[in-house]
Amino acid sequence: MKNLILTLALSVGCLAYSNAQVQVETTPQTSADVGMAPIKKGNWMVGGSVGSLGYSFEGKSFNINVNPRAGYFVTDGLAIGAQANLGFKSIKDADNEWGYGISPFVRYYFPGGASATGRFFGQGDIGIGGSSAGSDVSLNLGANVGYAHFITQTVALEAMFGYNYSKANIDAASKQSGLGVSVGFQIYLPGKR
């Protein structure tokens, strides 16, 4: 009889415990109402493009790049900073190349056309770079437009489209230009107030 009562008590206890384990279904956050808070003077942004894809018209080449970047907001909506340019290039009928470089940039977030969860921006950069193919130093220029969609108060997903120009040797006429698309993210860190 003791075993029956003990078994019954354990069964009731297990049933009560299992009913208490209710799963709450949540949906992932897809946007945040941020307004101007992330792009205020004194804030920082870090992140970059997790994949830049491009096609060169002159060189008939395909490239993919990773561009980590960091910037500081010198005034509301205007950030200056630097980005590293790390890439891989596959050239038709030639060896593959690995690229590297650094580019200071200026990014401006447009006040018009903005929503509470996103901002349009323009970014210009100028820098130098090199590659595994030779010892030439290249001048790199870029002009991009993009959209930052804030998924939290401090994280935004971005898409950029723009024109890129590279002159492989400053003394020679070897140059490349083309269009590029990139997808990335930024983390916005509040500065000292």
Automatic annotation (TrEMBL):
<protein>
    <recommendedName>
        <fullName>Outer membrane beta-barrel protein</fullName>
    </recommendedName>
</protein>
<dbReference type="InterPro" id="IPR011250">
    <property type="entry name" value="OMP/PagP_B-barrel"/>
</dbReference>
<feature type="signal peptide">
    <location>
        <begin position="1"/>
        <end position="22"/>
    </location>
</feature>
<keyword id="KW-0732">Signal</keyword>
